Amino acid sequence: MEKVPHDVSIGGFFISPVLVAGVLGVMAALLTARVLDRYRLSRYFANPPIVVISLSIIYSVFIGSVFVGI
Amino acid sequence: MHLSRNAKESIKIALALVIVYAIAMGINWEKPFWGGFAVIVCSQANLGQSLNRAILWILGTLFALLGGWIIVALFPQDRWLFMIALSTWVASCVYFLQRSKHQYFWMTCGYVILLLWDATGGDLSISYEEGILRIQESLLGIIVYGLVAVLIWPNCSREELHQAAVSLLDAHRAFADRCFTRILDRKKVKIRREKRVELLKADARLRTAINDASSDSYEIWECRRQWNHLGCRATAVTQSLLKLEEGLALSSDLGVMKFLLGMKDYLEDMKSRFKRLRFAIAEDQLAGSAQERVIRGNIDKVKELSTSETAAIAVTRRSLNDLEVETRALISSVNDIKSLGSSYLKFPGEEGAYWFGLLMPDPDRLANVVRVLVGIWISYLAYLFVPDMIGGLLVVLLITIIAIIAAVSPQIRLFETCAYTILVCLMSAPLYFFLMPKLPGYYTLGSMIFVWTFVISYFANKYFGAQSMIRTLVLIFPQIIFNFNNDQVYSFVVYTNYIFVLAIIFCILAISRNIPFSSHPERNFKKNIDRLLDSAARLVVEGDIQRLKDRSIFHRLYVLYHLNIVMISHKNILYWKEGINEKAIKGMSTDQMRRIIDLLMLVANQVKILYGIDRSKMNLVATKRMLREAFIWRCLAGKIFFYLSGRKRRIHIDSLKRGYRRIFDRANVDVGELMELRECSEQSKEGVSNFLYFLGVTHCINNYLAEFFRLSESVDWKYFCEERCL
Prior knowledge:
Chain A is mainly alpha-helical. Chain A has helices spanning about 15-40, 50-70; strands spanning about 10, 15.
């Protein structure tokens, strides 16, 4: 179920939901990239450096639409 | 209280920024940030470097302004033609900046044109007023920083020049002493990498110090030609010493003293020359004079040796004579500095080699040009076609600036740079939101700017170095966010937008860095090794300068291209090696990597020497059969080089060894005859000497190739080059 877009309040600070989704997306992508490197799975990608950016975008959109609401 | 150099430099940059903002805001200039930008970029390790940058900044800005107006005048109505012209301009600047002595000039030319375009909102007009305003603001930053650097704790380069010259001469002396002791003790010389690297570093330090001191010291400026000449001659001595070590690695255990005449006097004389040189520079005195001295072979004794041993002696003899010539020239250059002499006029300048290197196509440089252009075009197309794109033209501008800086240091870790820059921007948030709105006037704002800049500059200098890209970015980005001016606005949206702009910029750069091919350090390291071996193969097979005169211009360019690759590839390999994380190397050990780099340096040196041997003189004496064997050796060595460079050919190192034995077997038969030929004329004497030298060089190349082959086979190149996500 998609969330309704709304600002996220952190200690009274209203932060854009895109920022929250972006930060969480990047963190998830970094974690995934580390796991891929650890188990030598990066070699199966044509261009591993692009994988982090692509994963960041995929995760951000996913987290944004499912959990945060953008 | 004793302050460290780092603390002093950080105070200077912080103070200069406070003054620049005070003046710019006092005059009510639109964007005082550009003055601050000039201060950050000009602040360097010493006064000379800062002044050099300041001069190049002004010249680059003026040149870019001129170029900008010409482009606007030519394409005022067409967005695409304008952008193509702009890209061509930036591409030329990026191409030249990578080999230029005046890197900062080209860097400024490249991005100031976009800066002016951005200032006018990208409306295809670079107005006169905007241009002049930018220059004024930049000049303010440069003048203020220059004055602060000169008046407060001036870090003059003259003392550094003195120390650099003395330490190079000490390194020369120690290196030569080690070689001479081995000759006297008749012990085998082992090529010691760390000593060679030490020597080359001391040499590079002197060249940088001469450049810096010429800018900030009037006394050095007065005799800059003499100092530059000393730099050239000192480099020549360094190269001669390296060649001597390579030669002695083959011959020192044979007993060089027995086969070369006048060695004892020679060694004494050379030791005295190095001692006098060091004393003259350290005490600022004349170095005296040096008599010409030529080492000759003891023919009767040499006849007892095998051909390979004769060749080794020939290489050593040539190296010793070269060293004698170069130290004599170095003594003259030291005397010139004291007496303002002009012996430098007798030597050809370095300009020819410089222009040759600057204009010659180089795949690495071209790839960097493509990376910058891809970055610019992605951001420009996004600006045009993405509605309400965050940052707009600022993204195009910042991408150009970062991509140009990255072109000079492509081994930088983009992720690390991005992380630190965003971290510092996040750290600036409390100041921007909570402190700045409450500041009553410029005194308090100035204090805040001072403390912030000092802290960031101090830690950035400490952990990344005064000239690192991360230091420049972590100082610049918070300034963009703070955007100090008289109509200060505080907006959470603006702040968040800037963080997003940063993220977008690094995303685009991460993509553009992989076009046309990856900038992964390990891959580029291997690519440069392959390129060096490939060019070495072509030069070994080609091998004659004289014949070129009869050939087409295209063939000459082909040879010059490969010669250039052999000359620069070792530097490129070291350059990419810096980007490799030695703790996380895969597929080879750190020691293996060092040995590979050493061997490649030796191979490149020997291939250059081999190519330079005047074969037309050699042909006068060598019999046709010997020349045929030499030709076969060239073909075999070429094939091995091709094989090692990754071109899969059916060849084995044993076949090279067979070819190598053949040429020596052949020469062994005729060596006596060759020695007799020496007596015929001066020309034949030179021819014999050249032929023996050729044999010695082939001997070196064979040894290095055999070792490199073994090393290369023991390395898992595929695993080494494997790219990772992070």
